[in-house]
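Protocol step 4 of 6: structure prediction from sequence.
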Amino acid sequence: MLEKLFSGRPLLIATKHSKERVIGPIMDHYLGVQSIKCTQFDTDKFGTFTGEVLRYGDALQTAREKCRSAMELLGYDLCIASEGSFGQHPNIPFLATNEEILILIDTKNNLEISICHSDCETNYKQSEINSYNELMQFALEIGFNDHGIIFRKDSYCKKSITKDCLDWRDLKSLYKEYQEKYNSFTVETDMRAMRNPTRMRVIEKAAKKLAKKIIKLCPDCNTPGYSVQNITKGLPCFTCGFPTNTPRNQIYTCLKCAYSETEEINIQKKFENPLYCNICNP
């Protein structure tokens, strides 16, 4: 079925930031497609990390719009796009996270398959600079010059922004320029994929996750993308038997025919530690 759906088909990768370097080989291997770099499509119009162009809608909506716009512009019926977000970890203060949304749209077979991958492997960082020593410390912390640095007047200004600093001489020159203009200024890690090998590795992980989701077929209708759509909690407490908040089952559902299967998450674990029970340990 996978060969019938995908083998030999051109797969457009909607990016201007070289993501095809990691997405393409994975999709070619798993799906048998022929990945194509998208050279005539400006994804920055859907939003930039530095804020000159605001992103409207959530990350999934943006990735979907990238796909559909690129397909319409360039005349393809199979496309992948991604959208990244960065911020503070929801449960661990001061820890940054990278969330990547990847989506495949196949208009020929009426398929849309997406994944969300969150990863703490990121050098996402921003800092106010008051001295050259502070700039040097920032550069070393984020892995310059393998990773780029962006200079800006402050974290809110959308005009005085300089990108593509990848050279130690440029770093020193830009420090002098911004220090003379503003005295103190802001620098941040360049999070564009082609300027950030750390993020590129996360995109590669996300691409593998998407590929593995695509190749899992529905047992009933053979539609790709058969995956976990819901999780039920309630693993019983070992001491009192009361249902806890620990996940017990995962539910696979086909998005096309609605066929569904329930699977135990951990067949060896029948009870939860009373430490996590709201009755035994309120």
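Step 5 (inspection) to follow. The first helix runs from residue 2 to 6.
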